[in-house]
Amino acid sequence: MNSTGNIPAKTKPAFRYYWLLMRPANLGIILLTMTLFMFHAAEWNIKDIRWPESLTVILAVLFVAAGGYVINDIFDIEEDIINKPEKRIIAKHLSVRSGNLFYAFLLISSLIAGFATGWAMGLLCIVMNVLLYFYASDLKGSNLWGNLLVSFMNGMVVFTSGWGALKIFNGYFAEYALMAFLITLAREIVKDMEDIEGDRSQEYETFPIAYGMNKAVWLGMSVLTALNVLILLIMVLAGSLWFNLYMIAAVILPVFYFYYSLLSAGEKADYSRLQKQMKLLMVTGLLSVVLI
Residues 265-276: pLDDT tens digits? Predict the structure, then answer.
């Protein structure tokens, strides 16, 4: 590696590093979410899916998300040396130049797919790309604003999922978007707690740094409590026995486990494990849409 942090030009990075840079597990969750809610919007009738538009809107969102992950890693080079030295890719397996070129490819691809869907989706892709770039360059180290932006973007995935359906019925889209927002926000708070050492070295002002770990724990628990209240509301409105039983087992009870985990956590590994478990909570929570 040279003094600029780039790997030597003669090194030929493997394709798998570009793949890993896009966070395939996260993209899989996005793909699953959009597919589920697209069919949910069409009341599970395949004839009510507009296939060209459904495919392009999914590709647009996936490209936007992948680009967001790449630009985030480009801006995070110094922080990741401390927070995740073994997992970092930019300036270790891929040069910064290669990362920037890959980001440009994903950005252009998202706009092509977005405008292929329609002007509204194309303009939305521009807005989302700008917000994700702004998050990576400025908001990420701010007190909650970056967390709120990422959470809002995840909630938007639910809304864009109905774009490929011929008709959209009242399927609790707002409630599920809020669910995705709250789970993501709780996970972002825990992730800031996990990354506090690297964030402090970059002079970030994340919530755990600004107010301390104890207050961050209580903020995370408050967000999780709001999630449980939302789930109870959906359970009352849905009125399905199997749906209610599933939500109790797959969301409400795990949230109580997260309360205990947050209160007892003290090491970086504890927060790392917890935020990964919250990613699983996102999946199990969104899967409940098939029971409504």
Answer: 988 899 999 999
